[in-house]
Each structure stands twice: as C-alpha cells, then as structure tokens.
Amino acid sequence: MSVGTDNTRLVVLRGNSASGKSSVAAGLRERFGRGLALVGQDNLRRVVLRERDRPGAANIGLVDLTARYALDAGYHVVVEGILYADHYGAMLTRLRADHRGPTYAYYLDVPLAETLVRHTTKPIADEVGETRLRDWYRPSDLLPGGIETVIGADSSLAATVDRIMRDTGLARLPPLDR
C-alpha cells in the first residue's frame, strides 16, 4: 500500500531519552515552516493514549497511521521518538517500504552520561529519575540493515538540523501554503 507522493519526505529520528530528538524535530519544523508534520512518539503514547511503551502497544499503530495520513495529505513527515528497534522496527520498515518519496533515518547516538546531564533540563526531570533513565537506555539500538545515519553527541543542535535539512533536500523545498 503506497503512501505519500514522490515529493514527500519522510524523516525518522530515533535515539535514547534526552538525545535531542525533539529539539532536532522542532528545529526542522522551524527551519522548514508549514507543511512539515511532526509525529512525536511521546505525544501519541503518553498524552493521547497514556500507555506504557511495550511491544505490540496501540501507539505503534497510531504512529504509523498518523505518519501515513500526513504523507497522504502531502505533508513532509518527521517521526521522532525513542522508538526501540525491537518494538517499532517492523512498523518503521513497512512505512519506509510503502513511502513513495525519499525516506531518511537518523539515530542520535548520545552516551548515557550525556543523556543524564541533558535530562535534568527536561520538564519531566522531576517525574523520571536517573534509575528509570538508566533502565530505558539502550546503547546503539540501531535498526537492521544499516539504514540509519548515526549522528554523535559532538554534533550541535544547529549542525544536526543543518545536516538533515541538506541530506533530505528540505532546505531546497519551499514551505507548503497551508
């Protein structure tokens, strides 16, 4: 089942908690403007469904459905979240295979020590402690097939946004008039 158009871009941003995924996604949206849909795993899982992250959970299908809907409506889509490979890998593989346009996947590879420091600046820092963050952390949780571009902690937010804008061609496309 094909989704999107030859011109829509699908960008998948994955990484551990506090690796910078949401900040990068927001930077892409700010730089591109209207016509770029953000499909955030945290929003759909924690806010919309209020469910735990586990294999086979309802949010996996909702992330997929939301991304497909936005692509079919002509939006470029950024799917961002921890998106553990063993929970979300099959869905992301199908979405990538079904997307008519170019698809790009990035893994933000930030060491545990740095994610612990970054986590202290997040709004949920008081709710989610270091022990839980350590439990969530999975080093190099890459999708199979080498499809992800790995971006290290040494890449600044601005440099990461610039790179993805260039790689995906979003830097050359006009914002959609919506």
What are the defining features of this structure?
178 residues; Rossmann fold
Description:
By secondary structure, the protein is an alpha/beta fold. It has a single domain, classed as Rossmann fold. It is 43% helix and 16% strand. The chain has seven helices and five strands; from the N terminus they run E-H-E-H-H-E-H-E-H-H-E-H. A five-stranded parallel beta sheet has the order 2-3-1-4-5, sandwiched between helices. Helix 1 crosses helix 7 and helix 3 runs parallel beside helix 4. It is globular, with a radius of gyration of 16 Å.
Q: How many domains?
A: 1
CATH topology: Rossmann fold
What's the name of the CATH homologous superfamily?
P-loop containing nucleotide triphosphate hydrolases
Structural class: alpha/beta
Sketch the topology as an H/E string, one letter per element.
Answer: EHEHHEHEHHEH
Query: End-to-end distance, in Å?
Result: 26 Å
